[in-house]
Structure formats: C-alpha cells, structure tokens
Amino acid sequence: MVTIFPIFLVVLANLIVCCNGHVDPVCHMTTPQIIEHYGHKAEIHHVTTQDGYILTLHRIVPDAASPRGVVFLQHGLLDSSATWVMNTYNNSLGFVLAQAGYDVWLGNVRGNVYSLNHTSLTPSDPAFWNFSFDEHARLDLPAMLDHVLKNSWHHGSISYVGHSQGTLMALIEFSRNQDLASKVNLFTALAPVGRINKAHGAFQLVADVLPQLISLCHKLGIYDFLPHSVLVSEFAILACPLIPSTCAEVFYAIAGPDEYLNVTRIPVYGSHAPAGTSLKNVIHWNQIHQAKQPQMWDYGSAAENRAQYNSSSSSPPVYSYTGLNVPTVFFSGGSDYLGDPEDVLWLIAQLKPGVLLNSYTYDGYAHLSCLWALNAREWVSDKILSHLETVWAP
C-alpha cells in the first residue's frame, strides 16, 4: 500500500489536471531539462570532494564565445540548483544572468537530490549522512569553485551568489580560506545567515520537537531529512492550485510573511523542494540556534569536543567572519523568519569596514523573496547585474 499510494496520487493529480487545469511542465523537469526547455544549452558536471562525495554541478552554457564573466550560484538548506531557474523565465536569476551574457554555474551540496553519490558509500549507509554545513563549507564549496575555475572560460576569478545556507557556507570559508577567497571577486548574499539567534516560525516548532524526532529517526534507521519525494511533489502540484491560500500559509510559516510571493507559482516550487539534507545538518542548525552563536559541530561533551578539536576549550570553536575580505553585497527581508533583521545587523557589525559594499533590506520580503518574489527582477536581479558590471568591466 505504501508503494501504491504515491502512484495513485500521481494518477489522481493528472486526472484532475486534465479536467480542471494545466500543470507547468517545469514541475516534472530536472534542472538541466528546465534550462534546455527555455532554449539554453545545459551541461552536467561531477566533482569529487576530498572525502569522496560526488557533487553534481549544472551549467547554463553561455551563447557567446567570450562571456562577460563567471557566476556561481549556491542554493540554501533543503534546496537544489533548480531554485535558480524554476521561477518565471525573466524572473529567475540563473536565466537573468545568462541573458546578460554570463557563464552561469549552479551548485548542489552533498545529500541533496542531485548529489547522492559517493566513491564508496551509498545513501543507505548511515555514514553517508555524517555531515553538516561544516562539510558543505570546508569540503563542498572549495571543490565546486575550483572545478568551475578550471572548466569555465575565465580561470582567474569568479563571482559568487548564495542564498541562506549558501551564504553561511561562504561566510565561513571565505573568512578562513584566503586562497579560495582570493579567487572570488564579488560575494552576493541573498537572505544572509551568519547566526540564527532570532529565528522563529516553523523553525522554532521543529526545534521544540527535535529531540523526539531524532530519537524516532534513529530507531527507524533514518539519517536523512526531508528528501525529495514524488509524494510531496505531486501533492503540491495537485493541491496547491485548489487551495492556494493554504499552501501560501505553509510558505509563510517557514520563511515569514511574504507580500510579494507569486502564489500561482507555488506548485512549481513545491515540486522541487524540499530537496533533502542530512538529519545531522538540521541538528547542527539547531545547535547554533540554541548556543546563540555560529559554531562548529558540538560533539555533546566537553571531553569529546576537546579531543575532536585538539583544544583546551570544552565548547566547539566559534566561526569568525572578521577575516572576510571579498567585496560583499547583502539582500535581506524585513519579514524573514530565518535571517531575522536583528541577526543581519549583527552580521554586518562583524565585517571589517569597507567589505560590505551595499546592503539592501526590503520590508515585506521574507526568506525566499530574493529568489521568487514577483518583483525580484527589479529589486534583486537588476541590482546584482549592476554590481557584477563593476567587477567584470572590460
């Protein structure tokens, strides 16, 4: 019955659509298929990290022989490369950059729907899921950027755009890995997250039940968290056109009240996300929320922390962002439940003078608005293009 039910739901969804409406074909496409659906050439690249994870990168191949520049886009927590191309064509940052002549690369961190391979492990092995954003920053990010630098037309520098967890990865690694940071000419942070002391909404609800959830998952042998599933995807496609306000409320509970959300596009968003991560990663996010500071993984005891980090401190090392030297631009929302305005102001205060070129904050924007808002082209993408022009001037 468990196997049959998702199939039944898919059939039911298709029957309802045939009778009552139309499903956007993007709902059932992979990221490369979406890219090619809109007339661009797509490439699929595979990168192996130092610890054996095989990551999938997607590329929107530039039309021109000499593109204006190279831009790498990194998705956030529980997301994938699809997030940059699944809004309407002229309002998806990946396509906006491609239309402007840039060589656009889309990352996928270990454990999401596109990066489930390893040289010796499989997703059925608990060890496969033994990672958090520590590894995303320390291992995934350098591997992906180095691959892009070696395989794009311009081997010297790259512009980086991150959303949510993608900003945390960059803040961590660009602050301590100066060799990698020296190759990045611009860091654009959408819904920047350097700490989550003030996070609330659905995140707080999950945090409240997380101990029970962890216990249950361990008993069931579950080590991943919210993987991409046909059941969730087809439910979004089936239900959200019928109950758009209810589906919108789910987004608001997670990301914050969004005045500019394209509600008619929710079936597309829900068909691609969530895209999966590890349970350990979610626990780590909760750890920094509880600790009220951005820190490495807490092993749960003073002795273990001292041993693992070769430190005299009983607590995990705290991440510092004072070493960030990459020119940086922030885009944040006044209604963001995860990247709360108070936490964004704290983050700005951590940066050295002159590093932050500009910080745009929009009332009515929530955590996903920079990606999918109805006016994201005007308020976000066009401004990103302006900043890119300054670093990629001929």
Task: Give a short synopsis of this structure.
This protein has 394 residues and is an alpha/beta fold. The chain has helices at residues 4-20, 31-37, 93-99, 133-151, 165-176, 178-181, 202-220, 230-239, 244-255, 266-272, 279-291, 302-309, 341-350, 369-372, 376-391; strands spanning 41-48, 53-61, 70-74, 103-106, 117-118, 158-163, 184-190, 224-225, 277-278, 328-333, 356-362. Helix 1 packs parallel to helix 8 (230-239) and helix 4 crosses helix 5.
What descriptive keywords fit this protein?
alpha/beta, single chain, 15 helices, 394 residues, nine-stranded mixed β-sheet, two-stranded antiparallel sheet
SSE pattern, N- to C-terminal: HHEEEHEEHEHHEHEHHHEHHEHEHH
Biggest β-sheet strands, sense, barrel: 9 strands, mixed
Oligomer: single chain
Discrete helix count: 15
Task: Give a structural overview.
The chain is of the alpha/beta class. The chain is 42% helix and 15% strand. The chain has helices at residues 4-20, 31-37, 93-99, 133-151, 165-176, 178-181, 202-220, 230-239, 244-255, 266-272, 279-291, 302-309, 341-350, 369-372, 376-391, and strands at residues 41-48, 53-61, 70-74, 103-106, 117-118, 158-163, 184-190, 224-225, 277-278, 328-333, 356-362. It is globular and about 55 Å long.
How are the elements arranged and paired?
Blueprint: H1 4-20, H2 31-37, E1 41-48, E2 53-61, E3 70-74, H3 93-99, E4 103-106, E5 117-118, H4 133-151, E6 158-163, H5 165-176, H6 178-181, E7 184-190, H7 202-220, E8 224-225, H8 230-239, H9 244-255, H10 266-272, E9 277-278, H11 279-291, H12 302-309, E10 328-333, H13 341-350, E11 356-362, H14 369-372, H15 376-391
Parallel strand pairs: 3-4, 3-6, 6-7, 7-10, 10-11
Antiparallel strand pairs: 1-2, 2-4, 2-5, 8-9
